């Protein structure tokens, strides 16, 4: 008998097709309450993505659940404590998306500081005939502060070295082998930065980590870049900082209530926004798909995971 798998959120079509070749995959959103109640005790694996929310209530409603496999490096939407309480393993797909996320972070930094999007609109509106575009901010040789020096933070730092940038970071621990300056207090890091890169996980303890105090320290010449999670930044405080000129601008790939983006962050020359697409290249999404499939296959065959989340890695 084929393993019954609950697909709780959207996944690439190719990955879904591969899973359907091996297992009986049921779309959570397509199940009626009655159908879900009939099947709930038969699901041993749930597959989801990094933006979805997996609640304690949902986990508790699946008495045979053994694994939650997340398509994404972030898993802050999963109630990990509830998974542990119900003896459910959780896997994710780290590592394979590091380069793409770091690349987009650099792209946002350049696009925001040099106002590339606004400059294109300037040409399209015919404004160049009336004079040149206003001066923007230099990137090379500037100071960058990186909040969260994990895989992605370190990959961004390596790229920043190519721009001869002065690099400092804030992390809960000292990272061995790094020659960058560690500044534990994030507001102090911001005060010493022209660009503040947010790379820290979107955990509960990091909720609104980047608040009004940090933004004020970043200052009127500073630019915020967030490729982490929208929840890490106090969005109302960010909007206020943009509107009041407390900071110079922001490049944002993530938001608090995706896919809703506050109107106050749109149509601004000094704000560049992208739709949570940092890892969305063909090669990386294919690699993420393979890794997620390997986790599900490994669990189904011998209860072993390739990439369990750190909290539940026994």
TrEMBL record:
UniProt record similarity statement: Belongs to the D-isomer specific 2-hydroxyacid dehydrogenase family.
The record places domain D-isomer specific 2-hydroxyacid dehydrogenase NAD-binding at: 106-278
Lineage of the organism: Bacteria, Pseudomonadati, Pseudomonadota, Gammaproteobacteria, Enterobacterales
Whose protein is this, by species?
Leclercia pneumoniae
Question: Which keywords describe this protein according to UniProt?
Answer: NAD, Oxidoreductase
Judging by the UniProt lineage, the source's domain of life is Bacteria
CDD domains for this protein: HPPR
SUPFAM superfamilies documented for this protein: Formate/glycerate dehydrogenase catalytic domain-like, NAD(P)-binding Rossmann-fold domains
Domain D-isomer specific 2-hydroxyacid dehydrogenase catalytic as annotated: residue spans: 16-306
Annotated InterPro entries = D-isomer_2-hydroxyacid_DH, D-isomer_2_OHA_DH_cat_dom, D-isomer_DH_NAD-bd, NAD(P)-bd_dom_sf
Q: What is this protein called?
A: 2-hydroxyacid dehydrogenase
Gene3D superfamilies, per the entry: NAD(P)-binding Rossmann-like Domain
